[in-house]
Specification:
mainly beta, four-stranded antiparallel sheet
Length: about 375
């Protein structure tokens, strides 16, 4: 079996997805549920979902309200291919759809296919596509990722790209900048948004910009208060016609600590409340007037030597929320909110986990870093 590469990110047919697992019992909660909670990830052995361990390969799966389905078993493979490994999941009109890699027998190269309504579609994209995300752009599936070129100075320059069935592949313009980070993508009302970091000059001079591409057109933004950014915008979401982004930056005056800021429509809106110089913010969700940010913040584990470890963290409107950190290091990498209840996925040590209103549940078989990577709250289908 081949190595399955984890792509961030950042999840069949309707009868396969919505059909109840054989032997499962319907509960009163199932009958009254307003929405279903899906998580996407991988299960297997080992400490890293980027490879194999003990002769067993990681399998892409989804959990629906805690019940797991192996995606390849449910969807099969494209005609003429021997294997299909899902790398991302999305929803169109409440129906789950997939993006994945298809392999021919005895070959290590692959092609990307989407799977929707029981049908595979060849995107024409291959191993030159990196970190692809699957999005619903108003009922049309979009694949967003990046390709790379080597510049004359030897540095790698990333180029964002988007694929749709009708328009094919479009490579986004950098408008004279170089790019070293593509961190997030989202679609709303047919529009495609991508975020990351671009820079001029040397990659290592920290003199970067937060970048947002809307339908391929780039806008760049300086870090707040003359600070510097090495990562640019680390996440993006759109709600109510407003675009929200997260930025990692370093203050330009001592002590040069990390600043995490939420932006709205290209302007800093709030600063995340943390005194941790190594805090990270990697995902966000907006629910009405409330903004939720997920990432990690350092915390000293009792009875150790005083070392600090990144611990899972969720902030609501800039303030840290109470949550179960499972007593080990980790982080949050996806957030969804439904009826005021906050769901998240991430790592609790070397385990993939789902949080529901701060309560952590490690997912059975999700052994290794980045094995539960996405969460969705979807209106229940009866």
């Amino acid at each position: 079996m081949r190595k399955l590469f984890i792509l961030m990110a950042a999840l069949i047919s309707v009868s396969c997805i919505n059909g109840r697992k054989s032997g499962a019992r319907q509960t009163a909660d199932d009958k009254t549920r307003k929405y279903d909670v899906y998580a996407f990830g991988w299960v297997g052995d080992g400490t890293c979902a980027g490879g194999t361990e003990g002769g067993r390969e990681y399998k892409s799966v989804y959990w629906k309200n805690g019940v797991r389905t192996v995606i390849a078993d449910a969807v099969g493979t494209p005609e003429g291919y021997a294997e299909f490994h899902a790398t991302d999941m999305a929803f169109v009109d409440g129906r789950p759809v997939f993006l994945g890699r298809a392999y021919e027998n005895g070959r290590d190269d692959f092609s990307y296919f989407t799977y929707e309504d029981g049908k595979f579609t060849d995107t024409g994209l291959n191993e030159n596509l990196n970190e692809p995300r699957l999005l619903d752009a108003g009922g049309e599936l979009v694949v967003v990722g990046w390709t790379s070129v080597t510049d004359k100075d030897g540095t790698m320059n990333l180029r964002p790209l988007a694929w749709t069935k009708d328009r094919g592949t479009e490579i986004y313009d950098l408008n004279g900048f170089k790019c070293n980070e593509i961190n997030g993508a989202v679609a709303e009302n047919g529009n495609i948004y991508v975020c990351g970091r671009v820079y001029r000059g040397s990659f290592n001079d920290y003199d970067g910009y937060g970048a947002v591409w809307k339908n391929g057109e780039i806008s760049v933004f300086r870090a707040p208060d003359n600070g510097k950014t090495m990562f640019g915008f680390t996440a993006i979401t759109v709600s109510g016609g407003n675009t929200y982004t997260l930025m990692h930056s370093q203050d330009d005056v001592p002590p040069s600590a990390t600043r995490l800021t939420v932006w709205k429509n290209g302007n800093p809106l709030m600063t995340i409340d943390t005194d941790d110089p190594n805090a990270t913010a990697t995902c966000m969700a907006v629910d009405g007037d409330d903004i939720y940010v997920g990432g990690s913040a350092n915390s000293t584990i009792p009875d150790d030597t005083g070392n600090s470890y990144g611990m899972p963290a969720i902030w609501k409107n800039g303030k840290a929320m109470d949550m179960d950190r499972a007593g080990v290091f980790g982080w949050i990498n996806s957030i969804a909110v439904a009826d005021g209840k906050v769901y998240a996925t991430g790592n609790a040590g070397f385990k993939g986990a789902v949080w529901a209103d701060g309560k952590c549940a490690v997912q059975k078989g999700a052994n290794g870093e980045n094995t539960v990577v996405k969460v969705f709250c979807v209106p229940a289908r009866r």
